Automatic annotation (TrEMBL):
One family name in Pfam for this protein: Glrx-like
Gene3D superfamilies, sorted: Glutaredoxin (3.40.30.10)
InterPro entries membership: Glutaredoxin-like (IPR008554), Thioredoxin-like_sf (IPR036249)
Keywords tagged on the record: Isomerase
Domain of life: Bacteria
GO molecular function: isomerase activity
SUPFAM superfamilies noted in UniProt: Thioredoxin-like (SSF52833)
Protein's recorded name: Thiol-disulfide isomerase/thioredoxin
Length: 79
């Protein structure tokens, strides 16, 4: 299962969100692609005020203060 994690440098909320993703990796077989939104103008415009944003298989799963339970449920539903 593929997870895309949109974030930026020096973002404490992103760091906390990455811990949630690491916990999910312990339970599920996940590949995680961390993307810095400042490397792409379109991503910056789209996610600037929403990061971190998590996509599960291309589906927006959660944003901001990430919920382990919410993302886990989406992972289960996409299997």
């Amino acid at each position: 299962m593929h997870i895309t994690f949109y974030s930026k440098n020096n973002c404490s909320l992103c760091e906390k969100g990455l811990h949630v993703i690491e916990k999910l990796k312990e339970e599920y077989f996940l590949t995680v692609n961390v993307v810095d939104i400042y490397e792409d103008d379109e991503l910056l415009e789209k996610y600037m005020l929403r990061i971190p944003v998590v996509l599960v298989e291309g589906i927006e799963a959660d944003e901001g203060i990430l919920s382990y339970d919410k993302i886990s449920q989406i992972i289960k539903n996409t299997n």
